[in-house]
Design goal:
The complex is a heterotrimer. Chain A is an alpha+beta fold. Helices cover 22% and strands 21% of the residues of chain A. Chain A is built from seven helices and nine strands, in the order βαββαββαβαβααβαβ. Chain A has a three-stranded mixed sheet with strand order 8-1-9. Chain A has a two-stranded antiparallel sheet with strand order 2-3. In chain A, strands 4-5 form a two-stranded antiparallel sheet. Chain B contains nine helices and three strands. Chain B has a three-stranded mixed sheet with strand order 1-2-3, with helices on one face. In chain B, α2 runs antiparallel to α3, α3 runs antiparallel to α4 and α6 packs antiparallel against α8. Chain B is globular and about 70 Å long. Chain C has a six-stranded mixed sheet with strand order 5-4-22-21-20-6, with helices on one face. In chain C, strands 27-31-28-30-29-32 form a six-stranded mixed β-barrel. In chain C, α8 links the parallel β8 and β9. The longest helix of chain C is centred in the first third of the chain and has 18 residues. Classes of the chains: A alpha+beta, B mainly alpha, C alpha/beta. The interface between A and C is large, with 46 and 65 residues. Bound molecules: ligand MGD (2 copies), iron/sulfur cluster (5 copies) and molybdenum atom.
Amino acid sequence: MHYGMVIDLKRCVGCQACTIACKAENGTPPGVMYTKVLDQVSGEFPNVRKQFVPVLCNHCVNAPCQRVCPTGATYKREDGLVLVDHDKCMGCRACYVACPYNNRIFLKRGKLKSGYHGKVFTPYEAVKYKEHQDGIVEKCKFCSHRVDQGLKPACVQTCPADARIFGDLDDPESKVSRLIRSRGGVQPLSEDSTEPSVYYLS
Amino acid sequence: MSRIMPLVGNEYVLGFRKQLEWSGLIASAFFFGKIGAGLFMMSVYTESRLGMLIGLTIVLGGKGGAHMLFLGKPWRFWRGMSQPGTSWVSRGLWAMTFMTVFGGAALILPAGSTLFMPLAIIAAFFAFIVAVYDGFLLTSSNAIPIWNTALMPVMCMFYAFLGGTTLTLFLTHFGIIPPSIIEPVLSTVETILLAVNLAIVFLYLITCINSGGARKKSFELLVKGPYAVAFFSLAIGLGLIFTLVMTVISGSHAGPGVVAMVTVADLIGHYLIFFLFLRAGVFKPVFGLLKI
Amino acid sequence: MKQSEMVAQKDYWAKSACKMCIHSCAIVAHVVDGVVVKIEGDPDNPSNRGKLCPKGHAGIMRLYDPHRVKTPLKRTNPIKGAGVDPMWVPISWEEALSTTAEKLKKIREEDPRKLLVAINDFHRIHIWGWGSAFGSPHYFSTVGQYCGAAYHPINGTLDGSFAAVNDYDHCKYWIQIGAGDGFSSHLHVAASIKRMADARVERGMKLVVVEPRMSSGAAKADEWLPIRPGTDRAFVLGMVYTLLYELNIYDAGFMRKHTNGIYLVAPDGNLFRNSESQKPMVWDSVAKAAREYDAEGMNLQDVALEGVYKIDGVEYRPAFQVIKDSLKDHTPERMSEICSIPADTIRRIAKEFGEAACIGSTIMLGGKEYPYRPAAVNFYRGAIGHFDGGLDSLAMKLINLVIGNIDVPGGHIGVGLDHRLLIINAGKDGMLHPEPHLLHPPYEFNEKPYSFQLMEWYPIGIDPGHLTAENVLNPEKWGFDFQPEALIIEHSNPMWNLSATNKVVDVFKKLKFIVAIDIVLNESTDWADIVLPDLSYLESHLLVCIEPPMVTGHVYRRPVIEPLYDGRDATDILTDLADRIGFLPNWNGLLNFTTFLTPENYLDPNTKYSNLEITDRMAKSIYGPDKGLEWFQEHGHTTRLQTPEEMYLPFAQKGLRIPIYFNFIKETGDDLAQKMKAAGRDWDTSSYLPVPIWRDHHPLHNMPPEYDLYAFAFKECQTNFSESTTIPWIDEAISCMPIHLGVMINSKTAQKKGIKTGDILKLESPFGEVTGRASLCEEVHPECLALSNGMSRWSQHPVGKRQVTTHFNKLLPGDVKWTDGMTGHLETSTKVKISIISE
Ligand SMILES: Nc1nc2c(c(=O)[nH]1)N[C@H]1C(S)=C(S)[C@@H](COP(=O)(O)OP(=O)(O)OC[C@H]3O[C@@H](n4cnc5c(=O)[nH]c(N)nc54)[C@H](O)[C@@H]3O)O[C@H]1N2
Ligand SMILES: Nc1nc2c(c(=O)[nH]1)N[C@H]1C(S)=C(S)[C@@H](COP(=O)(O)OP(=O)(O)OC[C@H]3O[C@@H](n4cnc5c(=O)[nH]c(N)nc54)[C@H](O)[C@@H]3O)O[C@H]1N2
Ligand code: SF4
Ligand code: SF4
Ligand code: SF4
Ligand code: SF4
Ligand code: SF4
Ligand SMILES: [Mo]
């Protein structure tokens, strides 16, 4: 079992539903985005090309963030998920400078003292911020809590364009594997031999 | 095509991004680590217990302190020692620990003890690792090309020696540690180290000039971007050229004023150059060479 | 499950309806220990199928917004103004309602026309008529004239629809003109994005997007055609010319069978009728004679579509021939001059479009054979939100009619306003009965106007609320001899949504009393004297279904938790007020009609009914006595996919034809012209044309030369008007998205003017000025500035306040000169001159 995600750039319309769905699912505090969708505009008017590029942790097979982590807080699961054990992380940010994709987010000390409306927490935030710690590094967790219940990650579940597909890369018959074969999926920064588990179709 | 990409902040745009986490405190840790370890090594060489003590204190207090201030969860620092197999941070922590243990042991021995030298030399060996490991730490980061170069550890090593020499010179000159080797030697060593560092930094910049992508962006930040002034005037001008000129002119007859000036100038340059290297760290665009 | 049982659980998923935009996707809300921790799309719903757009997810933060109105509020600061703190104090419901009722009762006794009304609640269309039940004909807000005025009436006239969209499941060549369908806005965008993506990627449908700005749709399109604002009709008519005159591609069969294209037209433009039967005549080319359109034994194939036929010395032409002749000078070259799209591009697109239409081919669906026309033009506000917007709409319909794709598989499909699907009734002449007014019945004509928005003079339009301010401020112009004193607002933000903002401000200043029913404070409620807290969508009951493409039925909006604050359902508030003011019978009478009640469920005129009771009766009236509210609480939604019969050729099933020659519009115009003449008023009815043509005297394109750049506003998926920018999750995202960060200006244009990204600009139109941050880009036509709604808000809500707010509407006019004569639609683009205020 090796979980991975395929992102179909032909389908993505840049709506940012994934960005907000991830927020809602994981209750991330202000400024903390496990995923977002970047614009890439190339060419000059009128020959302009605009791409919407969703980015998130690639759950690299050969993950620099894990290699450099001095505490072992960043670890790899059997199923390929790269996760951070919030109770072990000492907040040294070695992983932050090691992730070529800039996907690691450090929560400053005191970060959780205020939310989206300053010191007043909404009931939702009061519940959700308990799942976080300040002074440590976080990132997309491929919605491990959902995946473990057999659910799709929140961003995948909601994507109105079905531009995000989640599945088992080890299974040659899974939708992700078939898409990668048939449409030639590519990995971001493959030249860094990090072996991302996220593939893009363009 | 990655060339035409912008350097972006938090906008949702594909492009180069600056690293924003490793800054002043990490620079301080690097700085104190090097000058402390440098002084420690020199002092073992000059057999100055006081020098060793000061060196050790700078490493523990300065470097250790900076790290503790920097860590998000300081009291979990001990966990950081659990991955020496893969993590340079772990290795650095171990090196510091051993340096402290052996150095401390050597220092508490009564004067003239036969064990002193062996322990001091082992400690000096770990001091050496403390001095250079952050070079490897930076080199090992594929993510930030301007750090990812073999010159880093070399530069760290020579800056450590330079720092150590400068401090020894200063301390002996002001009679804080006894002159075991005659000053002229020291000041020639100082001059040579300054020249060598200047050469390495120069070499380092050359390698950036015709690089592309993120390294180029970093380079631009250093030489024409917001950091250029500090980089040229202080890090290089004051820290290396000014000091070099002064030591060459005054040679071994430098008066206290000069020595003090050179020391301060050297330390400022030393701190700044690594601080700026950190600040200029730029990630590659997520898609690297990929055309989409 | 019963409401009480449901909310009693510790951990549950509640089915309900989203209302973060005007549409109504189905949701499930996850509630743990009484706290909503997640909202997802309802996977069982055939419309959005588990999908939500970003606004839908952000609903949690709207619900728990600490700045919501929690209790009735009273203003204690008598001074009103933008940015002035009203110094709200909480008051009891009794005080709030009695004060309000007292003021309004007095007004109603004196003259009900002293009340202005701004009720825009898209999900509660049944309460829009509260004002008329009160006795006020006025409308002081906009939904209509900023988007649909030139759209809905034309849809209703064509095929009894309210909206329309191309057939996602079968279309293979989709031209999208000024609309966000399938990408960013319009009909159930969370649902349509998937349908559009499947069509593009799975079925390889070709997509051409025509817009001055590279919208997210244009970014995904096979081809983006940047166009000059307000000239889309020219582009489309250039295509029609190419099809008719150069390629000879048109669906004669469809026109003969399903349209009035064969009806003979007299030189005066009216239908040639049989003098006795008054039936329209057609030309039987075998009998070489004019015959009644439904004459026995006449073979449709023999009926002429083209030609000129002399009867008793008078020349008659089939309607299709008239259309052709009217467009004979609309060459791609001339149209290109107007719209800035090269003539050969117009020709190429027309060819691709015409060929993709597969005229003649058919398809079997649900065991029935239908014409198969997998090419269609889809359009909305951008294309028709203009002076002459009615003609813009007609042109968009015409190009679809020409290839015979109206309501057929692959083509351009009518969408109902609600569960009712299309309104197919027999009209005269064997035609479908035109339904321009699905929102409320037309206003009786009167020489002297009685509604500030002049609805009585726009017989097929939708309330031009943007005229209200102008007429309140200059009553003498049309002879209004009364002045407004009060305003009631419900789910509306006239201060933000209306054009000519400065005039709107002046009207707000004049008003003695303003009451607003809202859940948060916006630009308008900042001026209110009393604010009454509504229940938010996650706290209230409703059966809702707004402009659902492909599906029908209702989504049941239900409270997923107990209401958080001391709010009351807007319907209950309005009922209470109607009772206290003393017009409960009129109100109940109106509700009987607007909630589709069947006689056995009619409301007793003098009884106060709760929203729950009304909803229950509505459910029973529509779905039968056993399908009341309880049934919905058990089973949730009734939404289902439309059957092929419901979707395709519904008019033909009733033997009715649809217009390709819009004589109904001409007749309406002629009638109005006559009445106005009799009334001694000069009123321009020149746009009531049966055939869309380009008309050069378009004020937008004839502005003084110093106004050298077009400017327009746009919606994208992240925001719903200005409201959702007060939601921190949305605000956080859009503050990082280039399109929402400033006034989009083409980099070349900017260079010429020495403008850099980040410069603060002054934008001046003849009607007002705004400041904005320059944002250089390639994604906009060099002659245009594009302004996101995401930067338009200036209300007191503390979330996401920008230093520079750029509210486009301040640049727009709001008078008759800038209003489409046929439909009352406002010209929603303008031209500006720009200067740099600071670098
Ligand atoms: N996300 C979201 N969805 C919504 C809404 C919302 O606020 N946000 N509002 C709902 C409502 S009430 C409405 S009316 C609909 C509106 O739905 P749309 O009409 O689809 O949305 P708009 O953005 O108003 O206009 C569509 C496009 O027209 C372009 N445009 C402007 N001027 C011109 C022109 O002259 N010619 C052409 N070809 N294009 C032009 C703009 O760039 C814009 O992208 O959306 C509904 N759905
Ligand atoms: N610049 C610019 N102006 C525009 C447009 C544009 O694209 N750009 N679009 C035009 C179009 S197409 C339209 S339809 C109009 C829409 O204009 P509006 O109908 O005014 O827009 P909304 O923001 O949907 O609704 C108004 C207010 O309803 C309140 N509200 C939200 N939820 C609830 C609720 O549950 N209950 C109650 N009682 N109130 C609630 C909020 O305070 C919100 O500000 O704007 C038009 N004006
Ligand atoms: S939700 Fe899907 S379509 Fe929307 S931005 Fe994210 S990936 Fe793209
Ligand atoms: S993307 Fe970055 S954070 Fe995620 S696994 Fe790879 S290196 Fe680690
Ligand atoms: S910050 Fe935490 S996760 Fe990252 S390397 Fe340090 S300890 Fe490991
Ligand atoms: S997988 Fe889960 S955590 Fe990762 S981006 Fe998607 S929603 Fe967020
Ligand atoms: S499209 Fe409208 S109704 Fe549907 S999820 Fe988005 S905001 Fe809600
Ligand atoms: Mo609208």
